[in-house]
Amino acid sequence: MGEEDLNGTLRRWHVTHIAADLETTPTTVLVVAASVEPKLTSLLIRELNIKSPLPTLAHVKRVRKTADEGGVKLSIILCAVEGDTTAAVDGHIPIPEHLVEVVKNFSLQPFVAVVPKQAASSREEWEAQCQLWPTSFHPNACTRAAKLKLSDEEEEVICKFMKLAIKQASNGAVIVDPVLNSVIAWGHDETTVPNISVSHDCHDQICLTEDEPSTSQCTKMGLGECHPDCQVNVGASKEVSQSYFVPTKGTEKMPRRFQWHPLRHAVMVAIDMAAERDRSLFPSSDSHSTAVGPSGQQEAEENVKSSPGDCYEDTNTYILGLPLSRPYLCTGFDIYVTREPCAMCAMALVHQRVRRVIYGISNKMVGSLGSKYRLHGRRSLNHHYTVFQVSITEDDISGSPL
Amino acid sequence: MEATTAEEEDDASISFFMKLAFDQAKEALTRLEVPVGCVIIQDGHVIGSGSNRTNETRNATRHAEMEAIDMVLNGWHKTSETATDPSLGPLPTHVDVVKRFGNCDLFVTCEPCIMCAAALCLLGFRKVYYGCTNDRFGGCGSVLSLHSDGCAPFTNGLDKTRGFQSVGGVMADEAISLLRSFYEQGNPNAPRPHRPVCKHHLVS
């Protein structure tokens, strides 16, 4: 997008998927295996799981089943070949000391086998792996290294919201509900003393609208107001109005005593606003301040029953005539940010459970979603979002208000 | 990673300050928050303290460290407000803030997550003591090693990559049992699991 050509059609930026893993060439490792009597298999498995767990080969099935003349033949992995593997290739079978007894007790005939080093990233790769040794395959995880492809329409929507982030600031962010195509929260970098005075009491001085609204439809919602005052053209024909929640002055909020804060990067500011919106829209569920006790336990159980994601009908909160459900943090929301998030911001977005992160300009020094780190590919994290990059340039953001 | 172990440090003062962090953590438990607590020390004095407020604020970034940092910044802000020299402005400059945090140590009951570890780098803390490790999110050696990798400031022109000294395992057992007491009681704010939790099959 960015500019219009002579025909008035929008020329778009390019959107690239930033895969969670770098593409890797399939590699294999050696293991010591042995044939085993089907009757003894479960006993042996139990013993091996205790004596010789295979944490690095979780994707590999411990037992291989092959059809043999006269029945089924089972082979089981005893252990990985550690250290120098050349001896194993030459026919010497390295049995670790702690397994010598097992081999003797079960009268095993160990041999060396080849298994895939990493879990398959595609169905094709998995089928190839199973020729070596059976592995498990999780289709949900198979896109880790594969590039996702977006439709033209999806790319167009992404570019439009990225433009909103740029309108925020050269270092700006917007959090979007992709179902309603509405902006949930926004922010810009506040780590430096602003040249112009920016009031933190009310967010409505930041206008994301391109055109002034013809009619002002303000619906009372909880402690704040909803301004469906921005029309963003999503898709070819349908127009979806944007709902902006604007916290009213004087409402209870986090103390913000300073004009700038060394940690208030655009992402952190936007997350803060999303949380503020949540607290203002759904004050009724804010019941966690009571002390733990016999009743505290009960309360916790009740809270689990009416867990986030349910509709809080008692709040009478509606957007576009639909009852608004309370989000669990930013679950299901997308964030658009003009620059690649640093480690702090990228991890904050993991904590806040956003669905997708779409960023603009890479940051070689500290960028943590593809440049310095690839945080969304860290398997230990409890949440993984999808990451896209929009091909904006410094020129695109140089005209930003801040 | 620095090879410093807790034993080499001044044990008495370390456990004194860590106990203060535990007081914060226990206070969080009474508010049904994940019990993690934190104190910030400058010249032997506690200048900031805090505990998790993620459930209360609906903001998953409001970790104990963030709360304590904001308390310190608020304190500095107040001091500069009462200062007579108007040229000091509403807050010391970014460079001043980093210089001041350079004389600060932080005590937290659980290893700082990646977000907090990055924040501690950005602010230029001198030394960080933590209790138990955080295998899923830890940014001081468990998942990433931001304390040794360092983290360059994002926008403010200070381009030197900074890290901090990190000392883990201070009263780790107490930290683990405190966290366990919380998760046994159940986190009321955790999302509903996507699918029923089923027992892992050892071999399929």
From TrEMBL, chain A:
InterPro entries: CMP_dCMP_dom, Cytidine_deaminase-like
UniProt cross-references to PROSITE patterns, sorted A to Z: CYT_DCMP_DEAMINASES_2
Name of one Pfam family that matches: dCMP_cyt_deam_1
Keyword tRNA processing: yes
Occurrences of domain CMP/dCMP-type deaminase (ranges): 258-388
Composition skew (Polar residues), residue ranges: 282-298
Keywords: tRNA processing
Chain intervals for the UniProt region annotation (Disordered): 281-309
Top-rank taxon, per record: Eukaryota
Family, similarity comment: Belongs to the cytidine and deoxycytidylate deaminase family. ADAT3 subfamily.
Protein name per Swiss-Prot or TrEMBL: CMP/dCMP-type deaminase domain-containing protein
Species whose genome carries this gene: Sphagnum jensenii
UniProtKB/TrEMBL annotation, chain B:
Organism expressing this protein natively: Sphagnum jensenii
InterPro entries for this protein: CMP_dCMP_dom, Cytidine_deaminase-like
Lineage, broadest ranks: Eukaryota, Viridiplantae, Streptophyta, Embryophyta, Bryophyta
Keyword Endoplasmic reticulum: no
UniProt keyword annotation of Hydrolase present: yes
PROSITE patterns: CYT_DCMP_DEAMINASES_2
Keywords: Hydrolase
Protein name as it appears in the record: CMP/dCMP-type deaminase domain-containing protein
Start and end residues of each CMP/dCMP-type deaminase domain: 12-151
A Pfam family it matches: dCMP_cyt_deam_1
